[in-house]
């Protein structure tokens, strides 16, 4: 059992150091491959960035309300957050202008997301491409390789040994281009044409809107790649290729827009209401169009229902209530809701809908459960935002300098360094050798915090502001509180007569609860502050929360194991006068608290004051014998009262 206890502290410390080494190694690799930098990104107040001033205008000439502007700001904020840009500032200026400030040098794609309005359209589905050519080719090649391997391993005919074995034909590998060509070559001439396909109708669902080249491009497009999920401006009067916004990999070839988002009157999420007035647990979105949208959707619903009926008629054996088949008619029985060039959902009509919808009221079913509820709320918001009749005119776009700059950052770091040095001086004065444990823990905590901030800057685009730096500096004091609580508990246990090893163990049992509760309070406070605050205060709360978590990890995985480990050394284990655990400094009362080499010194420390008083009464000088060993104690034990000789 003792052997286990001596091994565990070193194991914990080693594991923590390995984690730090791996983290810094990953950061160095990312820096070497130009994916990130060794230093965290800086926010607007420290690095500057790009500022755009947008003026909203309506497409129908109506007056813009405050609600419209606030919703437009929310749309922009959602787009910026989705693009991975942190610490952006979005606010109103004057009556209706919107100011967007993005840190550093944002990409052109991010700027486009800010410049353009939220544009939503209902488009007819012409083709649905499940999986891209690269994935299909990979699957086919894997299957071909398995079959070729099986064919090569098949035994030859034993009945005709003299005959040459018949070689099985090898299945050739397939390229993504071949897969896309087979899918797009509608007329079978082996050439991918850019001419329109033969017309199948006189509406927006006709094949005449698309080409073989469009089918080829849709099949080659990887709709799981992040670069294809950022959205783009698309011409509503032309057929387009659109990826599923959820990243499922599905690509849609869509006809010209039938209905614009500006024709939506309201979009509200909620559970389904039955004909008897009750509710079910099925979540969905109830959409109501204005008069223009109502008229358009009546024509759209009539057309899509005709395609659904045609698809079912092509497979009569399936029954009247069967799902649409996989023909193009079944695909054309659906409409897609497209926001900023991405399909947020596609849907057909439920079986209960048998006639065109003429009242302009549509319910889009999502599903059941908490996930469906969240999806319904998101879709309702997207439909509402897309329905805003607002465009943005860019009044100005310019580079802005840091509002505070590197000088303030340097001053903040100097202030933190000064505080760190003052803490070290205090620790050395108060705890002597134990200050080495605290300083080592502070260094590990600083390294861990820097690593976490740098990795968050890499993976989620976090940027460090001056308020965040303030949170880091304050965390030094929080970390020191943990050390002091622990050290004082250990010293209290030694004063109460425990051995050093027992004092460390018992002191840790009491201290860890206090430390955990204290850090939990700080963590809750930082989470609440982050949720309720905006701007720089959020940066302060974020770094405060990060450093609190790091403090807990360091105190449990490094400080306590290191404290246990250093007791193996005579300097600490036998209580050297500079160790911070010396009996004179602590007032230890147990002769067993330290090693044998300290027994006499402890005894002398405990009895020296009484002996000196006795010598003073007898008028004898203190020649140092009062703090000798057990012999000196025994010799004076035969003296009379107050040290007088008998």
From TrEMBL:
GO terms for molecular function: protein-transporting ATPase activity. Coiled coil: none annotated. GO terms for biological process: intracellular protein transmembrane transport; protein targeting; protein transport by the Sec complex. It is found in: Cell membrane. Pfam families: SecD_1st, SecD_SecF_C, SecDF_P1_head. Residues 248-390 form the SecDF P1 head subdomain domain. Residues 147-173, 617-646 are annotated as: Disordered. Keywords: Cell membrane, Membrane, Protein transport, Translocation, Transmembrane, Transmembrane helix, Transport. InterPro entries: SecD, SecD/SecF_arch_bac, SecD_1st, SecD_SecF_C, SecD_SecF_C_bact, SecDF_P1_head. Residues 636-646 have a biased composition (Basic and acidic residues). Residues 391-563 form the Protein export membrane protein SecD/SecF C-terminal domain. Residues 69-125 form the Protein translocase subunit SecDF P1 domain. The keyword Oxidoreductase does not apply. Gene3D superfamilies: 3.30.70.3220, Multidrug efflux transporter AcrB transmembrane domain. It is a multi-pass membrane protein. The chain crosses the membrane at residues 409-429, 436-460, 466-487, 520-542, 548-567. SUPFAM superfamilies: Multidrug efflux transporter AcrB transmembrane domain (SSF82866). One of its GO terms (cellular component) is plasma membrane. Part of the Sec protein translocase complex. Interacts with the SecYEG preprotein conducting channel. SecDF uses the proton motive force (PMF) to complete protein translocation after the ATP-dependent function of SecA. Belongs to the SecD/SecF family. SecD subfamily. Forms a complex with SecF. Part of the essential Sec protein translocation apparatus which comprises SecA, SecYEG and auxiliary proteins SecDF. Other proteins may also be involved. This is Protein translocase subunit SecD. It comes from Actinomyces gaoshouyii. The gene is secD.
